[in-house]
Design goal:
The protein is of the alpha/beta class. It has a seven-stranded parallel sheet, covered by helices on one side. Helix 1 runs antiparallel to helix 2. The protein is built from 22 helices and 14 strands. A hairpin with a 5-residue loop joins strand 5 and strand 6. The structure holds zinc ion (2 copies). The site of one zinc ion has 4 residues, from loops.
Length: about 525
C-alpha cells in the first residue's frame, strides 16, 4: 500500500463528504483513489516527489493536490474542515455492518445519532422502526452488531454480563471435578458495569486439568483465566470446601471492604465469618458502601412504577398491553409518561393527543379497576429550563417527569440553572434521568450536582433513579447524599416495552448499593398512599 494513513484519510473523507451531501462524483473519486493506492506497492512520498502519481489513471488533479499536502503536513485542510461538521465519534458508525454513509446520514440528520452508544440507545427506544430505509429488522440486526462490537472492548453493562455469566457458569459446572460454582466479584456485587466474570469453584483435584483443557490458563493472581464467547475476561478461583466462604468473601471484594474486615479465618461459609466477627451478614451488593441500614429496600417493596412509553409515543406495546403486563407483575399502579411535543423524533404528544390519550386511559381504568392508571408526561426540559407545555396545560397531568433530551452541550452554569429551573416549576414531580449519561457510551452533561440536589430538597421534589440498565441514572454513589437531604427517590423502568418493566430490578440493585430504605423510595407506597401523595403536590 502506498500509504496506509493516506488511504484511511481518503476513506474517511469520502464518508464525511457523503454525510455532508457533497457531489456523488467527488465521493466516488475519493473512494477510487483510495482503492488504487491500496493496491500500489510504491511509497506515497516517492510517488509525489517524482510526479509519478499524476501518471496513475484515475488519480485527478484534486487528488494529487491532496496527496502533496498530506505528504507535507500529515493531513489536509479539507479533511480537517469536514471533521469539524461532525462529532469525533461519527466514525464508529462505519464499524456497524450494513451502515453505509447514506444510512449514517439519515441517523445523524433525523435522530442526531453521532456515536455507537447513541445508536444503541436509539435502537433500545425503537427510534429506527419508523425511520425511512430502516425498520424493525434492521434495528434488530444493528443491535446484534453493536453487541458484538462492544463485547471486544472488554466491558459490558450488567444485564449483558448476567446473561453471559449464566452460560459460563453452566460450562464451568459441567467440567470434570467441579462440585459447586458460585459467581463472585463485581457481578456478585451487582456493579453497573462489569469488566470480568468471576467465579469460585469447589471440587476435587481434577479441576486444574479440566480448566486447562477448556482453554483456561493460570494467572499471577492464582485465578484461571480465559475469554468468554463475547470477549469478556473470565476468572475462576479454585477453593477447597473448607475455605469456600473465605475465598468467596475475598474475591467478592471490593478490596477496601475486605481489608477493613482484618484477618479472615478460612471458613466454609461467609455467614460463619460474619458471625465470628460479630457482624450482621452484609449482602454483596452493599459491600461497596460498606454497610446497610435496617429496612433496606427489597424487590417486593415496589408497589408500582412510573415512566413508561407506549405506542402513543415510541414504545413497542399498546397502553392496554402495558396495563396487562403491570397486572401480571402484581403492580398496584402504573404511571404512563409519553414524550412531549418537542421530542418529534419519538412521536411526542401535543395537547390534542394528550387529551385523546386521557380518554383511552379512562376507558382502560374502567376495564381494569384493580390497577390505578396515572396519566403523566415525560416533558422535555427546554434549553432555558422551562417545560414543554404551557403552565395551565401541565395541570392536566397526574404527574410530570421533567427530562433533558436535547442540547446537552451547554456550559456547566447554564445546565445547572436549567435543571434547577425545571425543579422549581410547580408542575414537576420528578427530575428524569439525572445526568443524561449512557453507561460505556455517553458522558453525563456537566452541571453542579450538589446545587441541583439542594434545589430538589428545597422545592420538595423527587428524583428518578432511571432503572434502564444503560442509564442507571442518578449514579448510586450520589444517593446517600440525596437520602441525607431527605429527597425521595422513584425507581422507574423508563420502559419502552412490556418486558422493559422488569428493568426496575437493576434500579433496585443500585438503590440497595446506596443503602436506600423502603421509606426513601416513593414507589414503595401503596395505591392509596400514592394517590394522596400525588394529590398533595
Ligand atoms: Zn427520557
Ligand atoms: Zn423515557
Amino acid at each position: 500500500m502506498a500509504s496506509e494513513a493516506f488511504v484511511q484519510m481518503l476513506r474517511e473523507m469520502a464518508f464525511l463528504a457523503e454525510m455532508k451531501g457533497e457531489n456523488p462524483f467527488k465521493v466516488r473519486a475519493l473512494q477510487n483513489v483510495a482503492d488504487l493506492l491500496e493496491e500500489d506497492s510504491r511509497s506515497l512520498a516517492m510517488l509525489v516527489a517524482s510526479g509519478e502519481i499524476g501518471k496513475i489513471a484515475g488519480v485527478g488533479k484534486g487528488s494529487q493536490a491532496l496527496a502533496k499536502e498530506f505528504v507535507q503536513t500529515g493531513s489536509t485542510g479539507e479533511y480537517e474542515e469536514l471533521k469539524k461538521l461532525f462529532p469525533p465519534t461519527i466514525f464508529e458508525l462505519r464499524k456497524v455492518p450494513g451502515l453505509g454513509p447514506k444510512k449514517s446520514k439519515a441517523l445523524f440528520e433525523q435522530l442526531s445519532i453521532g456515536s455507537l452508544a447513541e445508536l444503541e440507545y436509539a435502537c433500545q427506544e425503537n427510534r429506527l422502526v419508523d425511520l425511512k430505509g430502516f425498520g424493525e429488522k434492521t434495528q434488530t440486526n444493528i443491535l446484534k452488531s453493536i453487541a458484538r462490537l462492544k463485547g471486544y472492548k472488554g466491558k459490558v453493562i450488567l444485564p449483558m454480563a448476567l446473561q453471559e455469566s449464566a452460560l459460563v457458569q453452566a460450562q464451568l459446572a459441567a467440567l470434570p471435578g467441579v462440585e459447586a460454582v458460585s459467581e463472585t466479584g463485581e457481578l456478585r456485587r451487582r456493579c453497573e458495569v462489569i469488566g470480568s466474570l468471576d467465579f469460585v469453584l469447589q471440587g476435587n483435584g481434577k479441576i486444574p486439568a479440566s480448566l486447562e483443557a477448556a482453554g483456561y490458563a493460570l494467572a499471577p493472581d492464582h485465578s484461571y483465566q480465559a475469554s468468554s464467547e463475547n470477549g469478556l475476561k473470565v476468572r475462576a478461583w479454585i477453593s477447597p470446601a473448607s475455605a469456600f466462604g473465605s475465598t468467596l468473601l475475598t474475591t467478592t471484594g471490593p478490596a477496601a471492604y475486605v481489608e477493613n474486615l482484618g484477618p479472615l479465618p478460612a471458613s466454609p461459609s461467609e455467614e460463619k465469618i460474619f458471625q465470628a466477627k460479630q457482624l450482621d451478614f452484609l449482602p454483596p451488593e452493599c459491600r461497596d458502601l460498606g454497610h446497610a441500614p435496617t429496612g433496606l429496600v427489597e424487590v417486593d417493596d415496589i408497589r408500582g412504577v412510573f415512566h413508561l412509553h407506549t405506542k402513543w409515543s415510541d414504545g413497542k406495546n399498546t397502553l392496554e398491553e402495558m396495563v396487562q403486563a403491570a397486572l401480571e407483575r402484581n403492580l398496584e399502579y402504573l404511571g404512563v409518561s409519553e414524550h412531549s411535543q418537542t421530542a418529534f423524533y419519538a412521536h411526542g404528544l401535543n395537547e390534542a393527543r394528550v387529551l385523546e390519550q386521557r380518554r383511552e386511559i379512562d376507558a382502560l381504568q374502567e376495564k381494569y379497576p384493580s390497577l390505578r392508571i396515572f396519566q403523566g408526561i415525560e416533558s422535555d426540559i427546554l434549553a432555558d429550563g422551562s417545560l414543554d407545555f404551557p403552565q395551565e396545560f401541565l395541570a392536566h397531568f397526574d404527574f410530570v417527569i421533567a427530562s433533558v433530551h436535547g442540547q446537552m452541550k451547554m456550559s456547566r452554569d447554564d445546565m445547572t440553572k436549567r435543571l434547577c429551573r425545571a425543579l422549581e416549576n410547580p408542575a414537576t414531580t420528578w427530575l428524569g434521568h439525572w445526568s443524561g449519561r449512557l453507561l460505556l457510551g455517553r458522558e453525563a452533561y456537566d452541571f453542579d450536582q450538589e446545587a441541583v440536589l439542594a434545589t430538589a430538597a428545597k422545592c420538595g421534589k423527587s428524583i428518578e433513579l432511571n432503572a434502564n440498565p444503560y442509564r442507571l441514572d442518578i449514579d448510586w454513589r450520589l444517593l446517600p447524599r440525596a437520602q441525607a437531604l431527605g429527597i425521595p427517590i422513584g425507581i422507574f423502568p423508563d420502559a419502552h416495552s412490556a418486558e422493559g418493566l422488569d428493568d426496575v430490578k437493576y434500579g433496585l440493585w443500585m438503590a440497595r448499593k446506596a443503602g436506600l430504605r423502603r421509606e426513601d423510595v416513593v414507589n414503595t407506597k401503596t395505591r392509596q398512599e400514592m394517590e394522596a401523595w400525588l394529590e398533595n403536590r
